[in-house]
Amino acid sequence: MTKAFSKTPPPPYYIVAFSSRKTEGDNGYAEMAKAMEELALQQPGCLGAESARGDDGFGITNSFWKDEESMKVWKANVDHKLAQKLGREIFYSHYVIRVAKVERDYSFEKADI
Amino acid sequence: MTKAFSKTPPPPYYIVAFSSRKTEGDNGYAEMAKAMEELALQQPGCLGAESARGDDGFGITNSFWKDEESMKVWKANVDHKLAQKLGREIFYSHYVIRVAKVERDYSFEKADI
């Protein structure tokens, strides 16, 4: 999974905030997640994705999108549809997806010393 | 840190998506983060918070807020201001904050079997 910050453009753009709790064991999850992230980043209108998951199995992936159309196309992508199905059947015990329009952002980066 | 899902109300509401990379070592971070989360959850208009951080130090906290006013009051909270300062000076090498208005959400929870 991407562990770096996404270089998103100035707002407005969209965020899809995906919180999830994994079931126990990998069961092919790491491979699927990597493939889906790579595929998402290839979609027109995908502006990046940031992910974190702790040892307790609770994780958050925030992905960034240009507009409603690009999110809609990704949601309906055939390979992604299969991953969604596997997510519900195997990988996740619980997830919540929130779609939100980014209005502003700000950041901090420590200067190299 | 909260490792559970927040019971957010039907949209619209706001999400503050906070992505960060920690500096090495704890340096009092765990204690500060716990205190800030508890304080945030006590704020009027705070609807919850979800957090995940991986072993590589990259983490995401998504917090949920009723409206612009509640986010503004929290941002200006005196104890939170101090935590922000310590965050820049000690705890974080890089962070990005995105403020977004949630338009829709959906969820999945596996039935107990």
From TrEMBL, chains A, B:
Transmembrane segments: none annotated. Residues 13-85 form the ABM domain. InterPro entries: ABM_dom, Dimeric_a/b-barrel, Jasmonate_Hydroxylase-like. One of its GO terms (molecular function) is monooxygenase activity. Pfam families: ABM. Keywords: Monooxygenase, Oxidoreductase. This is Heme-degrading monooxygenase HmoA. It comes from Bartonella apihabitans.
